[in-house]
Amino acid sequence: MATSVETKDCTALTDAELAEMADLAADQPARYDIGVLSKQREEWVLVTRAHVGSVLHGYAFATLERIGGTPSVLIGLAAVKASSKRNEVLRALLGDLYRRAVLAFPDEDVVIGTRFGGPSGFEAYAVTKLVDIVPRPGHKPSGEERAWGRRFAKRFGVEGDYDDRAFISRSEPPAMLFDFESLKPEKLDPEVVALFDEVDPTQGACLVAFGWAMAEDLAKLA
């Protein structure tokens, strides 16, 4: 069955749709319940939902805005069902958000930021071909890149105990993460895995990561 995707204003999200999202999350490691999801409806502007047939397989809360004048997509709480379709669903979710970005910011590069609790989440950036991802193995972040990490941490509300060299926040209560489990975790890059050695989501920790979508790549989605 094909994957269908829809993005709409969070204000249009119904209680029935929230319940459907909570049912999906019940099988995920993070287990976001309807109370958490209701709060996200109030905090974010857009929600993207992906169905395989009639069954919800993924969702993401997001906001498109300019941070210091730079076009940005902030992805908040997100979850993808751990099924054989997960990679297709992941591409559909992010593809629709990026399509929104190119409509909002035509002919501009866009920075994409989110929070991960484990290395599987980095596949979200890999499948959509973002460039200059920070942090990344073997890369020493520049002062400007560290500043971007602080901007995202502040925007996500996790700046209180944020390490701008490791890009790790240890917040309380736990951060709202991009919840995605790799289809083949044994093939994850060991150096990417090492970035999360000090990240324990059960203790409120997350890694703030961002990358750039180039205008020429975004234009293909318009």
Descriptive account of the structure:
With 222 residues, this protein is an alpha+beta fold. Helix content is 31%, strand content 29%. The chain contains seven helices and ten strands. Strands 1, 2, 3, 4, 5, 6, 7, 8, 9 and 10 form a ten-stranded mixed β-sheet that branches. A hairpin with a 2-residue loop joins β2 and β3. The protein is globular.
How are the elements arranged and paired?
Elements (H helix, E strand, L loop, with lengths): L2 E7 L5 H11 L8 H10 L2 E7 L2 E13 L2 E11 L5 H19 L5 E7 L6 H4 L4 E4 L8 H14 L5 E2 L4 E3 L7 E2 L10 H5 L10 E9 L1 H5 L3
Parallel strand pairs: 4-5, 4-9
Antiparallel strand pairs: 1-2, 2-3, 3-4, 5-10, 6-10, 7-8, 8-10
Range of strand content: 25-35%
Annotation field: number of helices: 7
Most strands sheet: 10 strands, mixed
Low-confidence regions: none
Distance between the termini: 24 Å
What shape does the CA trace take?
Answer: globular
Run of helices and strands: EHHEEEHEHEHEEEHEH
> How many distinct beta strands?
10
Gyration radius, to the nearest Å? 16 Å
Mean pLDDT: 91
Helix content: 25-40%
Oligomer: single chain
Q: Helix/strand/pairing class, anyone?
A: alpha+beta
Characteristics:
222 residues; alpha+beta; 10-stranded mixed β-sheet; 7 helices; globular
Briefly summarize what is shown.
With 222 residues, the chain is an alpha+beta fold.
